[in-house]
């Protein structure tokens, strides 16, 4: 037994009677702010170079992010450089605001004002640590001292900001973060934020962003939501503030923290692509945005080509996106279990039949096409896959619509192959089984040549005459001929001449595969063998009548071959 857990203290939630957030719904996107270039970048083993940062900035703009924290310009030359390059290179679209971070310290604030010179839209983001733990362990200061640091910083920022606004006309806004808010007593968080708002002259026309970070995630998302609702309720002049969240993911619940925080009244969310950031990362914007999307809410971020976003992210961060990462991982649109595959198959059929407005496919909460993913890899086949899984792969991957009655027979052939291989098999292998078992099956009877003649008899009903030559057991060539009211009937009657009278035609299904000049007809024929056993055969030919005859021969051959 490991008793080390005893050295941890549990989070003390606030009493929150009559909480309102559980009854709310997320009905619109928050104001998104990306911190990929700052919080994300500072947590990389190999931080992005200038070129990569510029590419990241461009990608974030393309996705639709309108507020982008580009760095900590007073912290280092490279942080300064990216901002200057963006401004001087004219890379910042008019509707995008760059955000710069600085500690609430005079010389850093002054240097940061130099860095933003020439930018059109800027959020000046300053912070100091406010939590009880940081006060005790790091600053050894009481709350009064902490509030004073924030107030002094705010005063200087207001003074320099007013001057910059007057001189350059910059659209300058302010953001304050009581860093480690989640460990700050609610009264103290309100105290410091109120002072900052006063110093900055916040108003409904000139709102201040109050960013309430879960610098280190330490509680249940519901407990955090209580804090946020309480904060919003008790903040004087709430209309003069934009409440922003900045969840980190130490407990693995940053997405839920963000979502419940939005329900509790927050207006804005800071996060990163795929959750990159210090330790366990920041809140994953892709996850939160796509969660909204799958609830029918426009997230106002575009992840319709998630593969491109992911490939870029992996290149510049050198961090892989996990195979099971929501919406983006390699395996998130796969189903290994047979019952899942069957249900997905039925879901696709249902959608085709109903032509409804809503996505209704079990086990697939999102249409993979909505993030630029493909249907083909949705179902992977292993020995656990159900009968519908292989048929699904044949349809989605290769355009063969196997009749339902054929699924068990084909599924059994695929299962036997998987059992022998002892591994998952690829869609191409599934196609290979189909060809070997059906469309290219080599049996005792081979049709060498044939023709159909439609007989128009003015005195009797018209009929079809079939004649052909069949190679039997690789030896004798047997001519056959027969008449019938249709091509299949005529061919079956002709085949009877080979001594195959005991076979009874049961059902027939056909469709085209491919398109244009490459299109061929495929016919699925079900026959009952003299033993009573049902057999399927498949024929494929540009001529659908020929496909049907080949299908009959295939079914008979498979039976004679003991398949
Ligand atoms: O996590 C955090 O608290 C931060 C602040 C600087 C906002 O990144
Ligand atoms: Zn952070």
What does this structure look like?
The protein has 563 residues and is α/β, with parallel strands linked by helices. The protein folds into 3 domains: 29-317, Aldolase class I (TIM Barrel), CATH 3.20.20; 338-432, no CATH class; 445-560, Double Stranded RNA Binding Domain (2-Layer Sandwich). The protein has 17 helices and 14 strands. It has helices at residues 36-42, 50-63, 77-88, 106-115, 132-139, 143-168, 186-200, 221-234, 254-263, 285-293, 306-317, 338-354, 387-398, 407-421, 427-439, 487-495, 544-560; strands spanning 31-34, 67-71, 97-103, 121-129, 171-179, 208-214, 241-247, 268-271, 445-455, 463-472, 476-484, 504-513, 520-528, 534-541. The strands form 3 sheets. It has an 8-stranded parallel β-barrel with strand order 1-2-3-4-5-6-7-8, surrounded by 6 helices. A 3-stranded antiparallel sheet has the order 9-10-11, covered by helices on one side. The protein has a 3-stranded antiparallel sheet with strand order 12-13-14. Helix 4 (106-115) packs parallel to helix 6 and helix 8 (221-234) runs parallel beside helix 9 (254-263). 41% of the residues are buried. The model has no long low-confidence stretch (mean pLDDT 94).
């Amino acid at each position: 037994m490991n008793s080390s857990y005893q050295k941890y203290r549990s989070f003390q939630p606030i009493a929150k009677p009559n909480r309102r957030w559980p009854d709310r719904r997320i009905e619109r996107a928050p104001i998104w702010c990306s911190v990929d270039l700052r919080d994300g970048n500072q947590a990389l083993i190999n931080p992005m170079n200038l070129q990569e940062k510029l590419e990241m900035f461009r990608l974030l703009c393309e996705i639709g992010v309108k507020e982008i924290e580009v760095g900590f310009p007073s912290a280092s030359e490279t942080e300064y450089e990216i901002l200057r390059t963006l401004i001087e290179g004219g890379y910042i679209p008019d509707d995008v605001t760059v955000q710069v971070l600085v500690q609430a310290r005079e010389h850093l604030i002054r240097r940061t004002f130099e860095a933003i010179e020439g930018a059109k839209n800027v959020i000046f983001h300053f912070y100091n640590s406010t939590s009880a733990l940081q006060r005790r362990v790091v600053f050894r200061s009481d709350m009064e001292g902490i509030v004073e640091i924030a107030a002094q910083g705010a005063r200087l920022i207001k003074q320099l900001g007013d001057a910059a606004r007057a001189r350059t006309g910059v659209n300058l806004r302010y953001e304050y973060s009581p860093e480690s808010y989640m460990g700050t007593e609610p009264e103290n968080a309100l105290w410091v934020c109120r002072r900052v708002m006063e110093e900055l002259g916040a108003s409904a026309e000139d709102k201040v962003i109050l960013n309430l970070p879960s610098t280190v995630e330490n509680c249940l998302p519901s407990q955090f939501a209580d804090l946020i609702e309480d904060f919003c309720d008790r903040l004087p002049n709430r209309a003069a503030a934009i409440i922003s969240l900045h969840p980190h993911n130490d407990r693995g619940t940053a997405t839920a923290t963000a979502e419940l925080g939005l329900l509790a009244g927050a207006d804005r969310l800071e996060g990163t692509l795929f959750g990159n950031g210090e330790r366990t990362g920041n809140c994953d914007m892709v996850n939160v945005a796509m969660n909204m999307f799958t609830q029918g809410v426009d997230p106002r971020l575009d992840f319709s080509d998630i593969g491109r976003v992911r490939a870029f992210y992996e290149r510049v961060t050198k961090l892989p996106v996990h195979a099971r990462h929501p919406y983006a991982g390699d395996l998130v649109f796969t189903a290994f279990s047979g019952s899942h595959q069957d249900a997905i198959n039925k879901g696709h059929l249902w959608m085709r039949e109903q032509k409804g407005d809503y996505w209704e496919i079990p086990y697939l909460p999102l249409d993979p096409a909505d993030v630029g993913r493909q249907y083909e890899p949705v179902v992977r086949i292993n020995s656990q896959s159900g009968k519908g899984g292989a048929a699904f792969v044949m349809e989605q991957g290769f355009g063969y619509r196997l009749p339902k009655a054929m699924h068990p027979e084909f599924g059994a052939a695929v299962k036997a192959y998987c059992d022998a291989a002892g591994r998952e098999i690829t869609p191409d292998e599934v196609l290979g089984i189909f060809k070997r078992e059906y469309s290219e099956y080599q049996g005792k009877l081979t049709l060498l040549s044939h023709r159909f003649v439609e007989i128009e008899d003015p005195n009797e009903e018209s009929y079809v005459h079939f004649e052909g030559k069949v190679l039997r057991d690789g030896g004798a060539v047997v001519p056959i001929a027969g008449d019938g009211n249709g091509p299949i009937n005529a061919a079956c009657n002709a085949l009877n001449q080979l001594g195959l009278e005991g076979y009874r035609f049961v059902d027939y299904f056909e469709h085209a595969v491919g398109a244009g000049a490459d299109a061929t007809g495929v016919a699925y024929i079900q026959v009952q063998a003299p033993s009573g056993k049902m057999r399927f055969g498949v024929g494929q030919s540009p001529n659908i009548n020929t496909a049907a005859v080949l299908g009959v021969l295939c079914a008979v051959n498979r039976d004679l071959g003991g398949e």
